[in-house]
Amino acid sequence: MSGRPDSDTGPETAGSEAAADQDESHDLLDGSHDPLDESDDPLEDARRARWTAVGTGAALTLAGLAAALLRLARSAPPLVPAAYAGGGAVCATAAVLGSRGRTRRALWLLIAGVMVMALGDQFD
Prior knowledge:
The protein is mostly helical.
Protein backbone atom coordinates (compact mmCIF):
# COMPACT_ATOMS: atom_id res chain seq x y z
CA MET A 1 0.00 0.00 0.00
CA SER A 2 1.35 3.35 -0.93
CA GLY A 3 -0.90 5.30 1.42
CA ARG A 4 -2.71 7.11 -1.37
CA PRO A 5 -6.47 7.36 -0.84
CA ASP A 6 -7.20 5.83 -4.26
CA SER A 7 -4.92 2.78 -3.87
CA ASP A 8 -7.05 0.14 -2.11
CA THR A 9 -9.72 2.01 -0.25
CA GLY A 10 -13.08 2.80 -1.64
CA PRO A 11 -14.42 6.31 -1.99
CA GLU A 12 -16.48 6.08 1.20
CA THR A 13 -13.43 5.18 3.34
CA ALA A 14 -11.12 7.74 1.78
CA GLY A 15 -13.70 10.47 2.23
CA SER A 16 -14.35 9.62 5.87
CA GLU A 17 -10.62 9.67 6.71
CA ALA A 18 -10.21 13.07 5.09
CA ALA A 19 -13.26 14.38 6.93
CA ALA A 20 -11.90 13.08 10.25
CA ASP A 21 -8.54 14.77 9.63
CA GLN A 22 -10.29 18.01 8.74
CA ASP A 23 -12.43 17.85 11.90
CA GLU A 24 -9.32 17.34 14.09
CA SER A 25 -7.48 20.27 12.52
CA HIS A 26 -10.59 22.43 12.80
CA ASP A 27 -10.89 21.60 16.53
CA LEU A 28 -7.27 22.58 17.14
CA LEU A 29 -7.66 25.85 15.29
CA ASP A 30 -10.76 26.73 17.32
CA GLY A 31 -8.69 26.59 20.50
CA SER A 32 -10.18 23.39 21.80
CA HIS A 33 -8.18 21.52 24.38
CA ASP A 34 -5.49 19.28 22.90
CA PRO A 35 -5.04 16.23 25.16
CA LEU A 36 -1.32 16.07 24.33
CA ASP A 37 -0.67 19.67 25.37
CA GLU A 38 -0.94 19.88 29.17
CA SER A 39 0.35 23.42 29.65
CA ASP A 40 -1.86 25.92 27.87
CA ASP A 41 -0.98 28.91 30.03
CA PRO A 42 2.51 30.42 29.58
CA LEU A 43 2.11 32.29 32.87
CA GLU A 44 1.62 28.99 34.67
CA ASP A 45 4.78 27.64 33.03
CA ALA A 46 6.74 30.70 34.18
CA ARG A 47 5.35 30.41 37.70
CA ARG A 48 6.29 26.73 37.82
CA ALA A 49 9.83 27.52 36.59
CA ARG A 50 10.26 30.19 39.27
CA TRP A 51 9.08 27.88 42.05
CA THR A 52 11.34 25.10 40.77
CA ALA A 53 14.36 27.41 40.74
CA VAL A 54 13.59 28.70 44.23
CA GLY A 55 12.99 25.24 45.68
CA THR A 56 16.04 23.68 44.10
CA GLY A 57 18.23 26.61 45.09
CA ALA A 58 17.05 26.47 48.69
CA ALA A 59 17.54 22.71 48.92
CA LEU A 60 21.05 22.87 47.46
CA THR A 61 21.91 25.80 49.74
CA LEU A 62 20.88 23.83 52.79
CA ALA A 63 22.77 20.78 51.57
CA GLY A 64 25.93 22.80 50.95
CA LEU A 65 25.80 24.51 54.34
CA ALA A 66 25.10 21.23 56.13
CA ALA A 67 28.03 19.60 54.36
CA ALA A 68 30.27 22.54 55.26
CA LEU A 69 29.31 22.22 58.93
CA LEU A 70 29.90 18.47 58.89
CA ARG A 71 33.32 18.92 57.26
CA LEU A 72 34.24 21.59 59.84
CA ALA A 73 33.48 19.13 62.64
CA ARG A 74 35.90 16.58 61.16
CA SER A 75 39.53 17.09 60.43
CA ALA A 76 39.30 18.20 56.81
CA PRO A 77 41.45 20.71 54.96
CA PRO A 78 40.01 24.22 55.26
CA LEU A 79 39.39 24.38 51.51
CA VAL A 80 36.73 21.66 51.71
CA PRO A 81 34.20 23.41 54.00
CA ALA A 82 34.92 26.68 52.21
CA ALA A 83 34.04 25.08 48.87
CA TYR A 84 30.80 23.65 50.26
CA ALA A 85 29.85 26.98 51.82
CA GLY A 86 30.78 28.86 48.63
CA GLY A 87 28.72 26.47 46.51
CA GLY A 88 25.83 26.92 48.92
CA ALA A 89 26.14 30.70 48.60
CA VAL A 90 26.06 30.44 44.80
CA CYS A 91 22.93 28.26 45.05
CA ALA A 92 21.34 30.81 47.40
CA THR A 93 22.00 33.49 44.80
CA ALA A 94 20.36 31.24 42.21
CA ALA A 95 17.29 30.90 44.43
CA VAL A 96 17.02 34.69 44.69
CA LEU A 97 17.39 35.12 40.94
CA GLY A 98 14.83 32.39 40.35
CA SER A 99 12.31 34.13 42.57
CA ARG A 100 12.73 37.27 40.46
CA GLY A 101 12.05 35.40 37.24
CA ARG A 102 15.64 34.99 36.03
CA THR A 103 15.29 31.24 35.73
CA ARG A 104 17.91 30.67 33.02
CA ARG A 105 20.58 32.45 35.01
CA ALA A 106 19.42 30.63 38.12
CA LEU A 107 19.83 27.30 36.35
CA TRP A 108 23.39 28.09 35.37
CA LEU A 109 24.20 29.30 38.87
CA LEU A 110 22.76 26.09 40.33
CA ILE A 111 25.02 24.10 38.04
CA ALA A 112 28.03 26.23 39.00
CA GLY A 113 27.25 25.90 42.71
CA VAL A 114 27.03 22.12 42.54
CA MET A 115 30.29 22.04 40.56
CA VAL A 116 32.02 24.11 43.25
CA MET A 117 30.75 21.70 45.90
CA ALA A 118 31.93 18.71 43.87
CA LEU A 119 35.32 20.31 43.40
CA GLY A 120 35.58 20.85 47.14
CA ASP A 121 34.69 17.21 47.68
CA GLN A 122 37.66 16.21 45.52
CA PHE A 123 40.05 17.89 47.98
CA ASP A 124 38.74 15.79 50.86
